[in-house]
Amino acid sequence: QVQLEESGGGVVQPGGSLRLSCGASGFTFRTYAMHWVRQAPGKGLEWVAVISVDGKDFHYADSVKGRFTISRDNSKNTLSLQMNSLRTEDTAVYFCARDPGTAAHYYFDYWGHGTLVTVSS
Amino acid sequence: EIVLTQSPATLSLSPGERVTLSCRASQSVTSYLAWYQQKPGQAPRLLIYDASKRATGIPGRFSGSGSGTDFTLTISSLEPEDFAVYYCQQRSNWPRITFGQGTRLEIK
Q1: Comparing C-alpha atoms, which of B55, B22, B88 is closest to residue A99?
Q2: pLDDT given at position A78
Q3: Exposed/middle/buried for A77, CB within 10 Å: 0-12, 13-18, 19+?
Q4: Is the pLDDT of residue B82 over 80?
Q5: For residue A102, pLDDT beyond 80
Q6: B98 in contact with A, Cβ within 8 Å
Q7: What's the pLDDT band for B106 if we cut at 50, 70, 90?
Q8: DSSP string for residues in A51-115
Q9: Among A97, A106, A113, beta carbon nearest to B94
Q10: Helices (H) and strands (E) in chain B, counts
Q11: CA–CA distance, B95 with A37 (Å, rounded to integer)
Q12: How far is A65 from chain B (nearest CA, A)?
């Protein structure tokens, strides 16, 4: 069955950096676009970033553009999110999520359990 | 940015009842709308995509309808496991994806 497992969350000071990873199994990872979606504590969902199947095309939410970088390693079935210049408003649970298609459809049909990132001094 | 407004914010109902949740877009999203269910401490689950298509494994009591700016999610007969928060999401003007603020469905 499809499984996505995030790791790398933790507590970081404002201005700091963190790298999240998402390990995928149970499907042919290299044939699906992948996303990061986040949820601030007690709040709604916010899409963060998407990456194409070959890793060459990506898009970001305006709120993270220039600070976050999405990447993937298809040989290791791993999705990553490098987060720099973190702000308190980046505090959230970060989910990796699979797109239903090879070309991004921008829906999310499978999700990981999420990893909590807390930005605080 | 397309704003999605869900109503009501909270709904209190009993198992067996029929419920309709609403999602209104600030501009047309044609049929590019999805619904998700989220239970406490869990990831969201895709229920409906393209306004009316049920995702894999979703029970037939869930149905979606609408186009343009007005959409509904209907649960024909509530089961105990359906009490959760429901979010709509549009992909019409990707990559500027947006979600609604959610409707909490609670047991009366």
Answers
A1: B55
A2: 98
A3: middle
A4: yes
A5: no
A6: yes
A7: very high
A8: E-TTSS-EEE-TTTTTTEEEEEETTTTEEEEEE-S--GGG-EEEEEEE-SSSS--S--SEE---E
A9: A106
A10: 0, 11
A11: 13
A12: 12
Does the distance separating the beta carbons of B49 and A107 come in below 8 Å? yes
Residue with tokens 């797109």: A99
Distance from CA of A58 to the nearest CA of B (A): 9
Nearest Cα neighbor of A4 from A94, A92, A96, A115 is A96
How far B10 CA sits from the closest chain A CA (Å)? 14
Query: What is the average pLDDT across A26-51?
Result: 96
Find the residue in A nearest to B97 (Cα): A47
Burial class of residue B10 (count of CB atoms within 10 Å of its CB; 0-12, 13-18, 19+): exposed
Option in A44, A97, A109 nearest B87 (CB): A44
Q: What is the DSSP string of B71-102?
A: EEEEESS--GGG-SEEEEEE-TTTTS-EE---
Looking at the partner chain, which of B42, B45, B87 has a beta carbon nearest the beta carbon of A45? Answer: B87
Tracing tokens 């700016």 back to the chain, one arrives at: B69
**Which chain B positions have a beta carbon within 8 Å of A111's beta carbon?**
43-45
